[in-house]
Predict the 3D structure of the following.
Amino acid sequence: MRSMRVYVTGASGFVGGHVARALRDHKHDVRDHWVDLLDASKLRRAVAGRDAVVHVAALYSFTATARELEAVNVEGTRNVIEACRAAGVERLLATSSCATCGPVPGRQATEDDLPPHWELAVPYKRTKLEAERLVLSAGGTCVNPTTPVGEGDRAPTPTGAMIRGVATGRFRAYPRIGLNVVDVRDVALGHVLALEHGRPGERYLLGGANLTMRELFAAVAGLAGRPRPRVPVPYSAIRAGAALGLVNRNEAILARTAAYFSSAKAERELGYRPGPVEPALARAVDELVLLELARERAEPDHGQEDQADDEHAGDDVTAFRGGIGEQPEHRARV
């Protein structure tokens, strides 16, 4: 594959940073300086002279307002598409989400599926689906990562916050669902493969291992040297917690169905080959625990354990697909 001149949006974020690095490792000429997605003129200048644009930037949040999510995820994507058209960019690859493909109760979802109607009440999910449709209609290609984990998730994203909650011993229970977890390095390589070999108008799920939350939380706790959470939380309890304001409403909606996905299409068409997820979990745990310790040491001791992080956490009630509670730091650009 010839080397391409590529502009990457969102390279300062968790997934975007790994994508930019993987593209450079594969000898592509990468430009990745930050540009506001809502500044159309600066976007046009950023993509000028590029063969391809990899649009990773997004607002990944279950606490941001619908207006904020629409501005970044939908209008920002529309601006990227228009900038590519104006500059004559040949290829557009966008980072979508597994959330636009499912989940499907009782089986692994694929690119032929759509999310259940009740989950579209979640603004993040709804705006990612709308952005994806814009890209595909414009002749671009989408990749749909499942739940990336690994080093570099310092904000952290909702997923990183979930791992931190288990690794620091705050989460002592788990919901009775599951999700697909993947090494962020595999996701980054999947972007490279999709840019080089993906077909216009297609989407490709980039996943790893389908795990129950019990299995995932046990793995994270073991890596952190913590007791594994042993109390299963039924969906009825999560829903009740949301009604009482103890659990984030959007997260409660997403806790209804296990989110399992298949990457068979990416494996077949792109040569995507994800590795085991345990090394990525270990890297994530090491980094997040160290960051948490540094943060705690920097904060004054007011004699109240975990007061800031647990203000809205409800850590015995919920921890599932993408995070926990209503904490401002979970509004992460990825």
Q: What stands out?
A: DSSP finds eleven helices and 13 strands in the chain. The mean pLDDT is 89. The first strand starts at residue 5 and ends at 9.
